[in-house]
Design brief:
By secondary structure, the chain is of the alpha/beta class. It contains 10 helices and 16 strands. Strand 15 (331-339) and strand 16 form a beta hairpin. The relative contact order is 0.13.
C-alpha cells in the first residue's frame, strides 16, 4: 500500500478534478506484477493502468489501491468491473470513495466474489488525498494560504519592497507547493505591486496551475505577465465589466459585496464548478484576512525568515476584527522544518470544522 501511495502522491496537482490514485498488483507470493497511477482526466485510472502493464499476468492477483475502485461510467469505465473482468481475486484499498457518483465499487466487487478489504493504511491514504477529499465533502476547493514573513510578521518593508524576504531554498519549495495545487489566487494589490508570473520555476516541473486573478474593475493591463498566454489564467471580475487582453471564456463574473470585494465562499464555489479542487492563496494581507475571517483557510504554510522590519513594515495579514486575546484565530502547528536559512511552519485551524462549513 505504501508503494501505491507513493505513486498517488507523485500525481497530486496533475489530476485536475479527479483524485490522485495509485495501484499495485501482486501475485500469490506477494511479488509485484505491475503498478499504475492516474495521470488526469481522460487518462486510464490507476487500476486500469496497472492491468494494462500486467499484460495478462493479473489473473488471481491482488490489487492494492489507494482509493476504493470506482463504480462509475464516465470518460472511462468503472474500475470495479475492469478488476472483475481481469480475474483479480482480492482487492485492498485505503480510503472509501466519498463521491456518491463513483462510490459502490467495493460492493460490486464483493457481489462478484472478490475478497475486499478496506481501510488499509487509511490515515496515510487520507493524507495523500486530503485536498481532493475535502473538496468532495465541502463542495468547494481546499484552501492553502502561503506567505513569506519576517520574524516580526512583516511581508514587505515600508517602501513595499519584499524581494527577497525568504531564501532561494524557500522559494523553490514554494514553487513545489504551487505544483501541487490546481489554482493560484491573487488579488489586485499583488498584481499591481509585483506584476507576477505565477508560474513554475526553480526547476519545478508539473502541470502549471490555473492563475486566478481578482480584478473587480477591469483594470488588469493587457501587457500583464498574467496574460502572457503561456499558462492558463482566469480573471474574476464583476458583471458587465470590460476586461481587455483575455477571451471571455477565461473570465469569471461574480457579484461583489457592498465593499466591492468578492465573497470568498462564492468565489470558491464558482471555482469548484470549473473543476478546481485546490487553491493556493498567494495574495497580500487583505486577501489573506478575507479568507481567514470567512473560516475558509484549511492550511497555512509560512516561510519565516530571520530578519526584522519593525512596525513600519507591511503586515502579513490584514484586519481580522480581533479585539481581545479571547477572539484570536487559533492555529495548531502540524509541521516545522528548516529550509535554507528559514523556517517552514505548517499550521491548521485549531477548530478543524471552521474550514468545512
Amino acid at each position: 500500500m505504501r508503494r501505491a501511495l507513493e505513486r498517488a502522491a507523485a500525481q497530486v496537482g496533475s489530476t485536475g478534478e479527479n483524485p490522485a490514485v495509485g495501484c499495485v498488483l501482486l501475485d500469490a507470493d506477494g511479488a509485484t506484477i505491475a503498478t499504475g497511477a492516474h495521470r488526469g482526466p481522460g487518462t486510464p485510472h490507476a487500476e486500469v493502468a496497472a492491468l494494462r502493464q500486467a499484460d495478462g499476468r493479473q489473473r488471481g492477483a491482488t490489487a492494492v489501491v489507494t482509493l476504493e475502485p470506482c463504480d462509475h461510467q464516465g470518460r472511462t469505465g468503472p474500475c470495479s468491473q475492469a478488476l472483475i473482468e481481469a480475474g483479480i481475486r482480492r482487492v485492498l484499498y485505503a480510503v472509501a470513495d466519498p463521491n456518491l457518483v463513483a462510490a459502490g465499487g467495493a460492493r460490486r466487487l464483493r457481489d462478484a466474489g472478490v475478497e475486499v478489504v478496506g481501510g488499509v493504511l487509511q490515515a496515510e491514504g487520507e493524507t495523500v488525498l486530503e485536498m481532493w477529499l475535502a473538496a468532495v465533502r465541502t463542495g468547494r476547493p481546499f484552501v492553502t494560504w502561503k506567505f513569506a514573513t519576517t520574524l516580526d510578521g512583516r511581508s514587505a518593508a515600508a517602501d513595499g519592497s519584499s524581494r527577497w524576504i525568504s531564501s532561494a531554498e524557500s522559494r523553490a519549495h514554494a514553487h513545489e507547493l504551487r505544483a501541487r495545487h490546481d489554482a493560484i489566487l491573487v488579488g489586485s494589490g499583488t498584481w499591481r505591486a509585483d506584476n507576477p508570473r505565477l508560474d513554475l520555476r526553480h526547476g519545478v516541473v508539473g502541470r502549471p496551475p490555473l492563475r486566478v486573478v481578482l480584478d473587480a474593475r477591469g483594470e488588469l493591463p493587457p501587457d500583464s505577465r498574467l496574460l502572457d498566454g503561456v499558462n492558463p489564467t482566469l480573471v474574476v471580475t464583476g458583471p458587465g465589466v470590460a476586461v481587455a487582453g483575455i477571451a471571455e471564456d477565461d473570465v469569471l463574473r461574480l457579484k461583489t459585496d457592498v465593499h466591492g470585494h468578492f465573497p470568498p465562499l462564492a468565489l470558491l464555489e464558482a471555482l469548484h464548478r470549473r473543476g478546481v479542487r485546490s487553491v493556493l492563496v498567494e495574495g497580500g494581507p487583505a486577501l489573506a484576512s478575507a479568507f481567514v475571517r470567512a473560516g475558509l483557510t484549511d492550511r497555512v504554510v509560512a516561510y519565516v525568515a530571520p530578519m526584522l522590519l519593525g512596525s513600519d513594515g507591511v503586515s502579513a495579514i490584514g484586519e481580522l476584527g480581533v479585539g481581545s486575546i479571547d477572539d484570536a484565530e487559533r492555529l495548531r502547528i502540524t509541521a516545522v522544518d528548516r529550509i535554507g536559512g528559514d523556517l517552514r511552519v505548517e499550521l491548521r485551524p485549531a477548530d478543524w470544522t471552521r474550514g468545512t462549513q
